[in-house]
Amino acid sequence: MTLSPTLLLAGLERTLNALLARDPAAPSRLARLTGQRILLRLEQPALALAIHFHPGGLDLIRPDDTAEEGFDAVVELDAETLGELLGGSQLE
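^ that's the sequence the OP posted. Answer follows.
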């Protein structure tokens, strides 16, 4: 049995929001980000993901339109960089 991308994304969103709910500093940080939209592009596998911030956390959405004008920031990563960030490396 394979998970659909939609179910996987929903599970990731729930997990991130649960982690944010446990962080005492999250409400003030989320307040500053509320309404902001980030477009995350992964090189391999080719994937575009929109991150929308709100007071309760974030929404992860597979965007229909990836035009950069619709986003406040665009982050492009390759698999190696993503792996380093997930492993705890600092972003420079």
